[in-house]
Amino acid sequence: MIRKEEAYQDIEFPKGFLWGAATSAHQVEGNNTNNQWWAWEQEGGHINDGSISGRACDHYNLYEKDFDLIKQLGHNTHRFSIEWSRIEPKEGKWSKKEIDHYRQVIQALNDRDITPMVTLHHFTDPIWLAEKGGWLNPKVVELFERYTRKVVESLGDLIPFYNTINEPVWVAYASYGLGVHPPCHNDMNEFYTAGKHFLMAHGKCYRAIHETVKDMGFKIKPQVGIVKQMMYYDPVDPNVKEDVEEAERMDELTNRWFLEGIHTGIIRKPFGKGEELEYLKDSWDIIGVNYYTRSQISPRLNDPKVLELMLSRRGESTDMYEVYPEGFYKQLMSVKKYGKPVYVTENGIATKDDKQRCRYILIHLREVHKAIRDGLDLRGFMYWSLMDNFEWSLGYSMRFGLIEIDYETLERKPRPSAYLYRDIIKSNKITAQQFEKYL
Ligand code: NOJ
């Protein structure tokens, strides 16, 4: 996995590199009672460890304290999401109180010289939207656009970076195709419909942000992009045609059609009919990449030998995913052809072993560095997550945080990995000694 001769050398990151961590509203704020996740959690029995999001990390109230910590930890950027269901609790009714809240949140980052990166949609929908069919309803595209305009009108003078939608293809699949997120449908056609609506909504949202900033006469020139989860599909046996073809099919179904859609404006089959939408074409200034792991792919999984091969190739485990840094480099380089600045919007590990987290960070940052060395215009890295939080249907048992949360007392405690990360940020490099110490 790690080539010895490359293991212990200093590596340096470009000047002005953005360093930070990411969160999302529902996972950290607490009491997001107006969205479909909250409603689903109340039904009981859906979250693996029996938890519900509840007051989460109470970041809604403790954000200033958290931003002080971020500052102490040296971060110069912070990615977080605005909760649609707070801003628009009833269809077409805007909450001034919540808009003001997010204004204070963004201001609090600016006051600390921490660049805000704002996500407009991170898995959650207002209950009123879910009741109208959520992302299956074609109206969602204009509803999301309207919400976007409201956010930008109200807060756009303060926001330099927007992520339109977080992991749109995964959300569409998890909610409508696979049935592990609410409303838990199992229908591939619904997945295609929701996926298409996410793509269209992204395009509309991109145009709406730039138009609104211009109409409002804001001085800021925001950078807008999608956040795409880039799972690496690895053929179990690269010498077997069926495995290679199946991996390519998965890559097309979950990665390519969406990125190509934004690039060309064409909605490929089976999500669309090949229609070309002018507003969608080239609707990005930046690309956000989330990377966690690979998936080994073969259509021959009923063959015990294939299963055996698959297991024998498996790398180090974490509480959630296999560690596979090589796929990170590959997926980063796969977006180079679009010629846009790239930001790692998420990369991180669920583990109770913080030494493992330190190792994980180092070996993944090394892939980031390789991609930069090989010509990728990669401008920032955001670790997932700033703090332990509500890991969706897996609840609170997953520990992704640089900062440990005691859910009883709400005490925040930076882990050793947070200090390692701070040292990397401070020097803008990883030293050979740091690699030696942890690898
Ligand atoms: C991606 C999602 O954006 C985030 O919400 C989630 O917690 C992490 N992956 C870890 O699974």
Give me the side-by-side strand order of the main sheet. Answer: 2-3-4-5-6-10-12-13
Output the CATH homologous superfamily: Glycosidases
Number of strands: 16
Low-confidence stretches: none
The proportion of residues forming helix, as a percent range, comes to 40-55%
Bound molecules: 1-deoxynojirimycin
- Beta-strand proportion: 15-25%
Q: Using the coordinates shown, work out and report the CATH topology.
A: TIM Barrel
- Major sheet description: 8 strands, parallel, barrel
User: What structural category characterises the helix and strand content?
Assistant: alpha/beta
Please give a structural write-up.
This protein is of the alpha/beta class and 439 residues long. The chain has 16 helices and 16 strands. The strands form 5 sheets. It has an 8-stranded parallel beta barrel with strand order 2-3-4-5-6-10-12-13, surrounded by 4 helices. Strands 1-16 form a two-stranded antiparallel sheet. It has a two-stranded parallel ribbon with strand order 7-11. A hairpin with a 6-residue loop joins strand 14 and strand 15 (412-414). Helix 8 (140-155) runs parallel beside helix 10, helix 9 (168-177) packs antiparallel against helix 10 and helix 14 (354-373) packs parallel to helix 15 (416-427). The N and C termini lie close together (11 Å). Bound molecules: 1-deoxynojirimycin. 1-deoxynojirimycin binds at residues 24, 27, 166-167, 290, 346, 384, 391.
